[in-house]
Amino acid sequence: MTIRFGTSETLKPLSRVPASNRTFQAPVYATIGNDLLFSYYAHTDETGWSERFAANPTDALERQKYALLRFRHVMHFSSEIYEDDTVSKHRLSQLGLKPFSHYEVEKSELIKIIRRRLADSEIHQYDCPSLLHHFVFTMHGTIFEIVSSGIEIETGQGSTWSALEQFFRHPTKEAHDASISRSIA
């Protein structure tokens, strides 16, 4: 079944979300209840990184910058495999979807579909937040789409796995080290 989306949708770049690393892409994600944690290596202009990685991968990863995104009250999550040269075939490409970019879909038809589906349910086992956001992340070979009530952004240094591990050990803002920065979009 093909879902037809409306023509009123627009893509707004997420300028507060760190750009992803174009050469070293290994996003990881995990769910906690209705929340999604999504971690990836952030873009860096640092020279010599690939040589340091080849010489000592563990040390290079410990110094790599990462982004950890926490999507609150997730209503939709999908990941699709795309080659970087085929992003133009994605249904949002006519709106300007590009590889290695992050967007919010404004006037999202997907949000309307989710709301209609939940309204039509006789069971009503899920509460739908009054405000939903539709996010799209194009990374190396994969496009992620998330509909959630919001996003928290943290940055740090180390492996993407250690970012998730640190979150599970200290899940509240107050428990994080001062070296972690956090913002809410």
What keywords describe this structure?
185 residues, alpha+beta, five-stranded antiparallel beta sheet, 4 helices, disordered C terminus
Short summary:
This protein has 185 residues and is α+β, with helices and mostly antiparallel strands.
Q: Care to describe what's here?
A:
- The protein is an alpha+beta fold.
- The protein has one domain.
- The chain has 4 helices and 10 strands; from the N terminus they run βββααβββαβββαβ.
- The strands form 2 sheets. The chain has a 5-stranded antiparallel β-sheet with strand order 1-6-7-8-5, with helices on one face.
- A hairpin with a 2-residue loop joins strand 7 and strand 8.
- The longest helix is centred in the middle third of the chain and has 12 residues.
- The chain is globular, with a radius of gyration of 18 Å.
Order of helices and strands: EEEHHEEEHEEEHE
Q: What is the overall shape?
A: globular
Average pLDDT: 84
Q: Could you tell me the strand content as a percent range?
A: 25-35%
Question: What topology, given as strand order, has the largest sheet?
Answer: 1-6-7-8-5
Instruction: Give me the number of helical elements.
Output: 4
Structural class: alpha+beta
> Separation of termini?
33 Å
Uncertain segments are 174-184
Radius of gyration: 18 Å
Please tell me the total number of domains.
1
Count of DSSP strands: 10
| Quaternary organization | single chain
Helix-residue proportion = 10-25%
Biggest sheet architecture: 5 strands, antiparallel
